[in-house]
Prior knowledge:
The protein is of the alpha+beta class. The chain is 59% helix and 14% strand. The chain has 3 domains: 2-163, no CATH class; 184-246; 251-374, CBS-domain. The chain is globular.
Amino acid sequence: MRLINMLKAGIPLGSFHGIPVRLHYSWLVIFALVTWGLSANYFPIGYPHWSVTAYVAVGLATSVLFFCSVLAHELAHSLVAQAAGIRVHSITLFILGGLAQIAQEPGRPNVEFRVALAGPATSLALGVLFGAISIAAAGVSEPLVAVSAWLGRINIVLAVFNLIPGFPMDGGRVLRSIIWWRTGSLRGATRTASAIGRGVGYLFVFGGIWMIFGGNWGGLWIAFIGWFIQSAAAGSYREVVLQDMLQGHRVSEVMMRDCPAVSPQLTLEELVNDYILGSGRRCFPVVEGSRALGLVTLHNVKQAPRELWSTMTLGEAMTPLDKLKLVEPDQDLSTVLQLMTTEDVNQLPVVDEGKIVGMVARENLLTFIHTRAELGM
């Protein structure tokens, strides 16, 4: 979850089938490294008679096509998920490849199986396609042969690597779907797949360290990938456990009903002195008469320059109601946790028939979970 929130920053590339696509800034690092490796080492060794300009141009073109291949891999996951009725929030390319942010866990093991396999199958198909192009272009265009041969190999490597049974990698998700299908328990399947995923991650870490001690600094990258896999595996299991504990419970069970409403005419200074400091609350509905206008939070206050607190009103500083994510009293708590995570917010207004009737905070959900865990429920 922390990874998803971290990757929200980036460069928008547009959208495909309604899915926003963006580049995280860390992608620029790996793009530069791949381009440099191809231009300064790989192509000069294989084609020593090329000019420096040719090395750079072909290296850049190959890097761009490689990351287009990674994007195709993630789009395959996303389109299969969409076909199954699952919303996809975004696709982000970052230093470790790509991430399709899918809104929820697949409801059935066969859906997860199809979604998980779609990416590696696409990479494998691209590998075969580029391999065929490199054969067909022999004797016609040496740069085309060089580019397509490398892309063919790297896409096949990408397909095989992603099928390693280390959850939450694609292979780990395939494994989870099979266990889920056999046992009928998503939580149990996730526990098993996550344990295997963490084991795979630690193998990568130890293998990377062994490579470093052997004088191969490429092991640093292997160890980093291993750390990422084991951390993601542990985090994914925690997420499923939380979702499982919240499933079937409603917002009305945990929401705060005694939320003091504030007037849009109040200044930020009055809000801080009369409401925030006295109550410790960080979030207040802004209401005029019986009409909800929006929400003002500690974040809104901190965004305003201190010298304006005495004059800026809550009506000016608040987040308007139409820009807020809202939940209803009978909404399932598992969907609320997903919404808080994807939107990176700590509290949400609870609305019933157009009126704010309370607030639900991440703290409420965690207290609810911890209490049930203590009681063995």
